[in-house]
User: What shape does this take?
Amino acid sequence: MMDATPQRAPRPLGLLAELTHRCPLGCPYCSNPLALEGRSDELDTASWVRVFKEAAALGVLQVHLSGGEPGARRDLVEITKAAHDASLYTNLITSAVGITAATLDKLSDAGLDHVQISIQDSAAESADHIAGYRGAYARKQALAAQVTRLGIPLTVNAVMHRANIEHVDAMVTLALELGAKRVEIAHVQYYGWALKNRAQLMPTRAQVEHAVQVVEALRKQHHGRIVIDAVVPDYYARFPKACVGGWGRRSLNVTPSGKVLPCHAAESIAELTFWNVREHSLADIWDNSPAFMAFRGTDWMQEPCRSCPKAKEDFGGCRCQAFALTGDARATDPVCHLSPRHALVGELAEQRADLAYDYRR
Amino acid sequence: MTVSPDAKPKLPRGVRLTHNEAQGGWVLLAPERVFKADPTAVEIIKRCDGNATFGQIVDDLAKTYNAPRERITADVAAMLTMLVEKQMMEL
Assistant: This one.
């Protein structure tokens, strides 16, 4: 059924620019898809320049320069400058491996607004083991020091899972020592490589509940010194997350080869087809592409979502998770306690095994 | 928090005021955060360039908008205090 006056789609605020899938690290929870795009398929500099102009015209305010490791692109400085010149707020999301001191100086001059560095653990040996890269921890410390020396605000992204969840206190202390003004306690979300490594990564319920309490105490302790944002691990939640703030509502993602996705995991939903910036403008893709239309708004919902008072708050949770766990992308995210499949999530969380990581390669 | 008349407010690095037509106007951008800036906020923030003092900013606004100085002082101090707490302004 069509509305008499079709409403214009909301305007996106953020664009995740996956400049490359290449990365020296092998983190077993990498959010990139299992089928990585190769260097020969990557968009060229001029295409990214055009994408940023189109993004700003569409309403995008912030661009997250990510990957893979964005430092693997030789034209990272040009790309950053183009985003800045398009009046976009530029956020570099990096592993720190592959960004030299000289490159960071140039990025700073190009107008880089903010840097986010991921850390794998609070001590070098364990951190390097999780990253699958010897020496990564030391390089992160060195780059963080240079970021703060240049006066660029730094966020530390601490990815939490069973091997490090009991170090949450030490990781916040480390973020403070590195000079971060903000730290994200990002519990692993189970898509892509993390889904593949779920048994190795999944914490216990008791670990998660303890970590949530620790974070609350740390917030009070460090109030005014560092902002602590926490992404709650949803396998132990009663309500699902409003994934990406609602499908096709606030953000979009451009892959290295130019495919435009509503979220970074959307390619895992088998039925969707994605338009490419090589063939369509960003505005056309946002407003009209079938993948963005598929789950925008609430018309696609089934029960219990359809009549749920929270339908416009959490949008039925995550479509990728619904598809991955139930095989139906229109199902209620089974994380929700109202989902008829909710028991499954608890069963899956119990399937822990101390096996070797299947590293992203 | 009281703001000294000699304070020279400015946006810290990583916080930017920008205009975006599609979003319907001015926005203040910070790491992972976006605030719509209403016309009053825009006029205040635009004057926070690290050179002008709080006193000068208040004088300028009072003159430009022909408004009582006491009210402007209170409004600007409240806005600056709020932004400082969010780490989106330096004094």
